[in-house]
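Morning, I've got a small favour to ask if you have a moment. Here's the protein in full, and shout if anything looks odd to you:
***
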Amino acid sequence: MSRQSFKSRLRQALRYAAPHLAPARSHVKLTGQWAALEVLLPVRERRQLSRCLRFAGGMGWPPEAVGEEQVLRFPEYLQHEAMLPCYEKVVRETRRAWNRAVDTAPGWPKQRLAPPRSNHSPYWVPLNEFSESLQQEVADHLHRLAHPDPFLGSSREALAPSTLEQHRILFVTLASAVVASGIAAEELTSIASLVRPTGSSGRCGSSMPGPAAA
């Protein structure tokens, strides 16, 4: 039995026990203000907002009354009545499509919805979230690159601001990669800790040469 067939039979069985459950796809026609608004939408937004418009119409809400409080009830409907396994994706698309309609559809209600939250964890860890000692070492290193010691000879020229920013980004990227490997940010107390070899604890930083070695 295919997954789709299984879900269809499960939904059918549950409706015998709970006949109030909403169908997976609503075929209810919009009427009144909601019908007039739907025709204003491009095909993409019309498709992405279809469930939400019919849900709002079924709840008896006029378009101007729909805001964050009302839309917060939409996920529960999708999950527990329509029984959509991908309901979170539908909610994200609904919020984006609603706000696009606010910007582009003439006559659409002007109240915007909160943008959907990202479900991805950020890879980049800001430098100011690391230890003060690491921040200071990075600042000192960048200062030396910007103001080289004249006694080292003319071969060491000051780096341009854009190049210094590339070095700073390299430090942050390297430190973020070490944190992503499972090492706590507070354990990174120096530039050396970003490139330390595997120790007795079995934990290590990056095996790549760091900017300080350049």
Q: What stands out?
A: The CA atoms of residues 12 and 19 lie 9 Å apart. Residues 17-25, 198-214 have pLDDT under 50 and may be disordered. The chain has two domains: 3-104, 127-213. The two ends are 60 Å apart (CA to CA).
